[in-house]
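tl;dr need the bound structure. longer version: we got a ligand (beta-D-glucopyranose) that a collaborator sent over and nobodys looked at where it sits. i said id run it. heres the input, straight from their email, havent touched it
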Amino acid sequence: MKRFVNYLLIAVAIAFSGCVKKAGEPAAPAANVSGQEIEKKVDALLAKMTLEEKIGQLNQYTSRWEMTGPAPGGDENQVLQEIKSGRVGSMLNVTGAQATLEAQKLAVENSRLKIPMIFGYDVIHGYKTMFPIPLGEAASWDPQVAELSARVAAKEAAAAGLHWTFAPMMDISRDARWGRVMEGSGEDTFLGTQMAVARIKGFQGDNLASTETVAACAKHYAAYGFAEGGRDYNTVDISEATLRNVVLPPFKAAVEAGVATVMNSFNEIGGMPATISTHLLRDILKGEWGFDGFVVSDWNSIGELIPHGVAANKEEAARLAITAGSDMDMEGACYITLKEQVEKGVVKEALIDDAVRRILRIKFRLGLFDDPYQYSDPEREKNTLLSPENLAAAREVARKSIVLLKNEGGLLPLKKEGQRIAVIGELAASKDVPLGSWRASADPNSAVSLLEGIQKAVSNPAAVTFAKGPDYIVGQRAFQTKLQYNTTNRQGIAEAVAAARNASVVVMALGEDCFQTGEGRSQTEIGLKGLQQELLDAVYQVNKNVVVVLMNGRPLEITRMAGTVPSIVEAWHLGSEAGNAIADVLFGDYNPAGKLPVSFPRAVGQLPLYYNHKNTGRPTGDENVVFWSQYNDQPNTPLFPFGYGLSYTTFSYEELKMSSETLAKNGTLQVSVKVKNTGSVAGEEVVQLYLRDLVGSLTRPVKELKGFEKVMIQPGETKEVQFTLTPADLAFFTAQGKWEAEPGDFKLWVGPNSAEGLEAAFTLQ
Ligand code: BGC
């Protein structure tokens, strides 16, 4: 086992250390020009531009082009003309070295000022080599893992001629009904911030002009994850305090990390669509935080100001959006109205200049003016996509994203020989579902299925039987269309039961098709759909040794399952190497160490559910009386709490110590704890530190994550884990509208998840 782990780690480390050059890889990246030089160049170019050319830079259109070039068609031809005349600043969804090369030529060789276009694409968790969906990756609680996957994704995307990814998505999401939960890092601001910053580092590297990096885009700004009822695109109405304390910190950190672009969100907040929120864009993002990149609208979010009911027509929508600070119009065709509005004097040209300056600045930083074609290199593309080292990285990231939720009686790990294994469920054989939603340019059906992973891992593949069970999805499966679930045709259950009866252990894949989550994929129910629960019940009746492998893009309601089967492995949608990574865990080649980045509810009616909730004025009391903030039919607590995850070993926490019981205004507080591996195999533990501010000028959460550390501990070994707290860690948006720490008493916990831990207390002076 150990040798295998080391092999992977070494292979991944070498491949991404930057010290090994392979045929087809780029020469040294273009020299990064200094900020001042870029500003001069931007000014000089801007001075030469006509109003029409300036407005051209603000337009982004999508493409339906083929890999080899533009496809015929009215719309497309019009876009071609626009590009040639310098009236298109950016395209999205043009992918592939050849296609981007040709599209870029149209702009550079035909337009008067030869300004290159910037090509954007949703590279959310990989370009061709798929990594786990971001929610799954967040379960690694390992920012280095997120940085690695983003770096590989950037390398592949850049080799395919792309300059810009619309990622990372950093929306905090507390409601599992919302389909876009899968795209972010879950419910917590602290964890979400660490993962977002790591992804930005991975995408952008140290040099945007390198042909191995792409510009990142912090999205969706802001509060998109707070859609009422978890229904996508729905109204958001949150307080300034929640906005500042929960939603905005990852964006602020993204700006500090140098993120090149920001995408606004579809939603309104308290009646004001984010796309035209001067407060969000001008005051906070570009003002308080000094963001100097550009803001792209979300898809037609400027045009959607009309149905929102804040603009009567495209002209008004454009005027409101440019005034608020949205710089680029994605697919809205609203900003083309700005020329006339500037000429009439209703929109100031200075607003246009500011937006153009920001867009040109990023194009210069990307090196596009030095060589507009440098990213589009078919040879490099061929050598980079799906390379063995990229796939090794995908496997490494995937297994680190797996969370062991239950393992009663030590059913796991399985043995590679001597066990008859029945693999059951349509998802187990799927080579497509693990690729996940938002799969960029992944080849359909290209993932290693769970079945294949198991067959490769065991010494005798013939001892593995597979029964698909009843159909899960009936009809078409696609990113754009609603899924239909089979609830009536029970064919396949009997075969699955027979397979289970003859097996010593059953591995059952259950959960969600990947297109159950993602954009426009909200659900009112988040349990097992179709006949999955029925299949599980039938199988469990004849064989109690059931390991459920969950594949899903959101927290699921699995209360019934958790009360029966002995083992549950949370495997999300893990990407290209899913089956291998899951097999690594099932057979103990890798000891799982993931922790949940989201709470799993007992019932959908608990949503929104999150560990860092407020206490309320009536938190708890006499159980026989109803006048407490509680449900009468379920406990308030989740089924599995945020931060939860098991290992094949066990850990004990001892000797929580603080350097002092007081923290001075400018001081530091050292916190240490001893963590012992009390089991018989080596394992990693994510040691988590939570705080509670007992009395604030505004109510404070009952617990907030403020630190975590992932440590590898050998059997019998004890490791001391240290945290350093400063008053900055205690700061929040106060009743005075300031970001500061308020003196007073705090509670502190260090433990294995948000519901357990050793407790201490200190006072901030
Ligand atoms: C999504 C964005 C995405 C954009 C471009 C929108 O519908 O909300 O996240 O980047 O489309 O594909």
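gonna send this back to them w/ a short note. The first strand starts at residue 59 and ends at 62.
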